[in-house]
Amino acid sequence: MKRLLPIAALLLGCSALQPPGDREGPDPVGLSLLAEAEGDSLLTAGRGDAAAEAYLRAALLREPGDPARHAVALRAAEAAERPAPTVAVLLMESAWPDSLSPYLALRVGGTAARAELLDALARRVVVMPEYLGLVLADTLLAHGDLDGAAAALSVVPPGMPEAADRERTELLYQAALLGGDASAADSIRTAVERSGDDELLALLCHRRGMLLLSAGSPAAGEDLVRSFSLWPAAPVHAAAFAALRDRLLRDPDLAAAVADPFYEGGLWNELHDLAVSMPDPPAHLVYLAARTRDRLGLYDEAADMLRGYLDRWPSGADAPDAMINLGRCLGWSGDTDAGLAMLLSYGSRFPDHARISNLPWYIGDMYAANGMWSEAEPWFRTMIRDHPENVTVDDAHFHLCLALMETGRTEEAIAELRSFVATRTGSVYLSPAWYWLGILLLGTESGSPEGGQVLRDLIERVPLSLPAAFARERLGIEPWRPEFTDEPLTAWMIRHGRPPVGPPERALRGLFLQRAGLRRFAQGEYLLAEEEVGSPSRLAEFYMQNDVWERRPMSGYTMWDLSDDPSDRPRELWMLRYQEAWPELVRPLCAEYGLDPLFAWAIVRNESMFQPDCYSPAGARGLIQMIPSTSEFVAEEQGWTDYSADRLYDPAVSLEYGICYIASIRESLGAGPAVTAAAYNGGPHNALRWGAPDLPEDRFFAAITFDETRAYVQNVCTALAVYRALYPQDAVLQ
Q1: Which site in 32, 35, 61, 322 is 20 to 30 Å from 226, CA atoms measured?
Q2: Cα separation of 257 and 173, whole Å?
Q3: Which residues of 710-734 are buried (b: 16+ CB within 10 A; e: fewer)?
Q4: 724, 598: one domain
Q5: 244: closest CA among 276, 272, 219?
Q6: Pairwise CA distance, residues 636 & 656, whole Å
Q7: Are 602 and 635 in contact (CB under 8 A)?
Q8: SS3 sequence, 55-70?
Q9: 180, part of any domain
Q10: Residue 513 forms part of a structural domain
Q11: 158 within some domain
Q12: How far apart are CA 204 and CA 313, in angstroms?
């Protein structure tokens, strides 16, 4: 076959200008089958666009009206990775045996099948025309086709599920703006303002701001700044910044207005760009830009910027915080003398500052990060003595225990750990403190049996904690594994009085949208279906059968407590909460970048619970919660030229950037899951500060100073243990 395919392609090229029925020579149907086989081979090799071209040739060799012509055109549409206008026209040329055809035609052809799609909408001969109308209107507006967009929107009623209704509103607003109907646009915007929907209002402000900017209006800045402020992590701000940058560089007031939203929305590189490119940048913008370098681990660059800030604005509003962060950056980069001097200078200049009581902790932490435990100890003791109500006092107390351990004062460390576990029962360091108390007791000359009992008590109290896992290993106890049965989920649900139900029409509508590539709209239909049947759990079986990744976890959570017996939960119930979601993306990416796919799923689960549209207060976005500045670094390292922060809500983009980055962290640190997870959440620079890769995992975990990162590492490691138990065939032990 491999020798025949090039010949078939040549014959196809020679005969393509003639109608199939008038051709002489080889049988068109036979040539069509050869081209289809070529497409199959190319698709298997991962060459989607080449496969689509082969399938298109196969379709064109068939007579119009031939069902095989349409079937092969569908395969071309599904394989295509780039626009394929001719495929779109073929899909719309006849009555469609497949109801997805109009949606696929729009996806692969854009405006190529405009007339056919509008005609189908007008005649209401498509499935769920309101959704096709939405996406067609969006496409036509992007091409300036107001009349076509208006016709498409005419079939879209108000009162659709939330995401669809919001998109309808945005498109109507955009159409009114482009059509010059200021009254209609103002009416829509006023209604949205009254609704309190800040995210939608941010998008409307963006639309108007970008239109005004293209017209050269100075009023554009006001709308765009409001858009940045209302929703700092909106998927439109990277494009807005690119268009607004020149004006921001010339207008310090405008730049000052975007500083906080950019910082909160993760547009750190854009903020830094303004700070270093403006001739006279605003003070607060410079301070925040310096903090972005600090948070990315670029301590020397951050220190230079903070010095520059303090030189220009020694009494500025951010001066106290600038001195704190400059001192810490200097210390973390290894210059502890300069760091100490700066921190002490802060203390003498700003004795009434809100963070002044943290000062002993800052200094002790700086010394500890450099392994200078003897120098750190007195500062930890000062913190405990002088500021017993400060939020960092338990950090200082636990690190005092570590300082005593590190300096070989075992008996003092045991005494201090006993004090810690007795008095700080609500501390996030409690389980590490119990663990190290047990370890030290085991290591005394008498090999105190109390040490083993302390570790066993720890395992009993917090069995899923990472210190409990370390204790199990030290005592030779089998690692924790989740308990589950092989009882079918349906039988278990019936036995516990909550039988599944057949999917209502709303659920089937959601499934259709999902198959049409409109997952964001499908979720609204699924939510309405859950309301109709009374609980997400009743649709769990339907969700499992149809890869509804976004709703599976909730369907599992809402029936988790039907049984209070931990050994009476079926494997499938666990699989709802710990799922191998988007495997067609995750598996090949993990194979390409050398990452355990189960670890990747454990990360995704903890980052977003499989919700592609989620975002964090720090501007991290998407399934794997990448901060834009980090994803931009990944793009530069990989030589990817299509980077935009606005694409991070796309599952394919989010997963590729995240898996590539996590794999690079793991490789550079030579670390296991716990250290890799800590580096991903807290930053590789902080993982190094906490002792990676030199410290063993139990000691590294104890050194983590970020509460969020400690909890994150614990959750990821627990999730990984669950994944390895549920999917042993996929386990890659590392």
Answers
A1: 322
A2: 25
A3: bebbbbbbbbbbbbbbbbeebbeee
A4: yes
A5: 219
A6: 14
A7: no
A8: HHHHHHCCCCCCHHHH
A9: no
A10: yes
A11: no
A12: 37
- Indicate the burial class of 216 (C-beta count within 10 angstroms; 0-12, 13-18, 19 or more): exposed
Do 709 and 588 share a structural domain?
yes
Q: Measured between alpha carbons, how far is residue 724 from residues 158, 294, 480, 554, 580 in Å?
A: 46, 36, 11, 21, 11
C-alpha–C-alpha distance, residues 42 and 49, integer Å: 9
Q: Please report how the helices 101-109 and 67-79 are oriented relative to each other, as an axis angle in degrees rounded to 10.
A: 50
CB 275 within 8 A of CB 286: yes
Q: Distance between CA 572 and CA 565 in Å, rounded?
A: 16
What is the radius of gyration, based on Cα positions, of the chain?
A: 30
- Are 685 and 329 spatial neighbours (Cβ–Cβ below 8 Å)? no
Distance CA 471, CA 432 (A): 10
| Euclidean distance between CA atoms 280 and 311, whole angstroms | 14
Residues 558 and 589 in one domain: no
Average pLDDT, the chain: 93
* Residues forming beta bridges with residue 621, ordered by sequence position: 615, 626
| Identity of the amino acid at 290 | A
Q: Which two tokens stand for residue 453?
A: 């009992």
Q: How far is CA 479 from the centre of its chain?
A: 30
Q: Using CA of residue 690, residue 693, residue 695, residue 701, what is the dihedral sign? A: positive
Compute the distance between CA of residue 75 and CA of residue 59 in angstroms, rounded to an integer.
10
- In eight-state DSSP terms, residue 728 is G
CA distance 191 to 187: 6
Q: Are residues 543 and 614 in the same domain?
A: no
- What residues contact 124, with CB distance under 8 A and at least 6 apart? 155
pLDDT in tens, 61-114: 999 888 899 999 999 999 998 999 999 999 998 766 568 999 999 999 999 999
Residues 553 and 591 in one domain: no
- How far does Cα 238 stand from its chain's mean position? 17
Q: Are residues 603 and 717 in the same domain?
A: yes
For residue 646, what are the domain limits?
Answer: 583-730
CA dihedral sign of residues 249, 254, 258, 259? positive
CA distance 340 to 348: 12
pLDDT bin (cut points 50, 70, 90) of residue 24 is: low
Using CA atoms in the order 269, 270, 276, 282, what is the torsion angle rounded to 10 degrees?
-120
8 Å CB contact between 603 and 716:
yes
Q: Which two tokens stand for residue 49?
A: 């666009």
